Amino acid sequence: MGTVSRVLNDSAAVSEATRRRVLDVVAELGYEPNATARALSTGRTRSIGVIAPFFTRSSVIERLRGVAPMLAGAGYQLILVDVERAELRDAAFRSLFGRVDGLLSISLAPSPADGARLVRAGVPLVLVDHAHDEFPTITVDDAGGGRCATEHLLGLGHERIAFMGDTVDAVHGGSASSRRCVGYQRALDDAGLSLRPELVKLGPYGREATGIVDELFALERPPTALFAASDLQALAVVDAVRARGGRVPEDLSVVGFDDVELARYANLTTVAQPLAVSGMRGAELLLAALDGSELTEPRQHLPLELVVRGTTAPPGERSHFEHSPMEGGRTSARVA
Amino acid sequence: MGTVSRVLNDSAAVSEATRRRVLDVVAELGYEPNATARALSTGRTRSIGVIAPFFTRSSVIERLRGVAPMLAGAGYQLILVDVERAELRDAAFRSLFGRVDGLLSISLAPSPADGARLVRAGVPLVLVDHAHDEFPTITVDDAGGGRCATEHLLGLGHERIAFMGDTVDAVHGGSASSRRCVGYQRALDDAGLSLRPELVKLGPYGREATGIVDELFALERPPTALFAASDLQALAVVDAVRARGGRVPEDLSVVGFDDVELARYANLTTVAQPLAVSGMRGAELLLAALDGSELTEPRQHLPLELVVRGTTAPPGERSHFEHSPMEGGRTSARVA
DNA sequence: CTGAAAGCGCTTACAG
DNA sequence: CTGAAAGCGCTTACAG
């Protein structure tokens, strides 16, 4: 069998005659080498693990749209691990030890112990949408984006601006949502407005929008605008406002974050980030590391862009874009 | 090491004392058994392969939303293989041989040779969205759905109804698109209308909508309605009509298929199918087969439902639903 | 150029 | 109850 292996991997010199013979038999039998055995023997699994929280969320999917073709192109299998609850993060990383040649983690970092173990084992890890000192990262200026969204609202004349985001959770660490909230606070600060805690609503991702909107409108001085930490949360708010008979943006201007595909159809004003590109870049870094290359740019920062559509307008006014939801009248502003 | 293995798998009787000692050392070293070696030794990889064409399409994602939690819950790793071109189907199946305990294939069947090999190797396969004689399947009555969509249009008074679908491709075999087209033809037939070939437009998935719409409107007697084989194609048509200054549904009624999340936001009339459920059922069947259970219902048929929203109306009229895109006024009809 | 052998890191009968 | 050994199916030095 040594010889068969040699021709299949064309590793060493094999006479053309035996080579032929082996190939013929292989074809006839439909023989396929056992990938597991090969992996054990070579120490390379030819697969890479992708860890993501809620991989069916559009923002994550759009990132995967960047990574999948890169990995497939390089001949790697993609093992996907979904992390639906924070407590499952460590189990997710551990389930991949010894099964993959490299790891790409989206919006999630390993525990310090697991990180150290990866380094020790020589298994490269790249983080997308998560800052880190020890591993290569692809990030975005979330605080800057939050500031930009808020300044857009301030510029329209809003002064009572609410924020809606995820409840902070220890594992996702400084989550994107909390960083975006920081930008929101800074923008208010710079505008000389004080933060009104009753306007900051945190909750489980995308849920509870109806309750939150009700609470907001029940306030003595309700907000005239809202910045949500993600498009889906923003859209849930838009829905909730309309469901109670309100109008967007007349009764409430709404800004989202991400610019997922849905945002365009819903004509949502949002802060766009290059999701697919983030995945592609992450995969590139990982592939380079797997190659043993020195990474030239292990810490990449991607640009953000405000996309103004139909869900924002000056307080009490209609949007200029409201009537053509699908043609997407669109104005942009780059973030620093 | 035999003993360590025994306590970790609590396979045989081990004295409480050594058991403790082993567990302590394991915890201290953070030892994690090598999954590849274990797989080679036991013959079970504890992972299952999921093969799908274009897994980032919303319809596929919504199916995956059903399968991922099932597999994770049963302790299986999910290896995802995307098939972007028909020629890559066989490579996709083969890349998984010897790496997985079972296979779930979405909208795609293996070649007869590969199917036979799977059977021989005792690797269970379940097909979702693809009929098959030899393997368990989860399907939907695509022809019935196509008929239903077309009858809705006929019922509104349309007589010139176009169809837009995917180009037939040998590998995807009788594709969902072509089955839906059959239903369209039958409905026309039953209504005593003859099929006008110039109204049937096939093209690569979701592309070319602009060109197709231009061609359609350039006809001497252009269609007043269009049934698209998928929501994304339908939405592309809606966009194209509006981009050239036309109105939907006044100038063209449009019906889609699938009812993906986007359809609701775009207020699209469509034939809804239970995508997440299809994935869940498929995973259930696979898990049962992996368990060695006899499958009680290896051939499942899921129901379809027409959802009337704002993109359809009698020829030349406005839709009743047009003004409240997000509140989703919705009427339904079950398909046989 | 090509056999025969060792080894990858586990699991699991097999002795003891 | 617990060592020692064989075996899972490959790859790869090592002889010849």
Question: What keyword list fits this structure?
Answer:
homodimer; 336 residues; alpha/beta; Rossmann fold; six-stranded parallel β-sheet; DNA-binding
Plain-language structure description:
Two copies of one chain form a homodimer. Chain A has twelve helices and 13 strands. With 336 residues, the first copy, chain A, is α/β, with parallel strands linked by helices. The first copy, chain A, has three domains: 2-33, no CATH class; 41-140 and 276-301, 3-Layer(aba) Sandwich (Rossmann fold); 142-273 and 304-334, Rossmann fold (3-Layer(aba) Sandwich). A seven-stranded mixed beta sheet of chain A has the order 7-6-8-9-10-12-13, sandwiched between helices. Chains A and B meet through α3, α4, β2, α10 and α11 of A and α3, α4, β2, α10 and α11 of B. β2 (77-83) of chain A pairs antiparallel with β2 of chain B. Chain A binds a DNA duplex (16 and 16 nucleotides) through α1 and α3.
Inertia-based shape of chain A: elongated
| Straight-line distance between termini of chain A | 61 Å
Biggest sheet record of chain A: 7 strands, mixed
Any idea of the CATH topology of the largest domain in chain A?
Answer: Rossmann fold
Number of strands of chain A: 13
| CATH class membership of the largest domain in chain A | Alpha Beta
Q: Which CATH architecture of the largest domain in chain A would you pick?
A: 3-Layer(aba) Sandwich
Tally of alpha and pi helices of chain A: 12
The main sheet of chain A orders its strands as: 7-6-8-9-10-12-13
Largest interface: A-B, 47 and 47 residues
Mean pLDDT of chain A: 89
Total separate domains of chain A: 3
**Structural class of the secondary structure composition of chain A?**
alpha/beta
Low-confidence stretches of chain A: 322-329
Q: β content of chain A, as a range?
A: 15-25%
Q: What's the quaternary structure here?
A: homodimer
**CA radius of gyration of chain A:** 25 Å
How much helix is in the residues of chain A? 40-55%
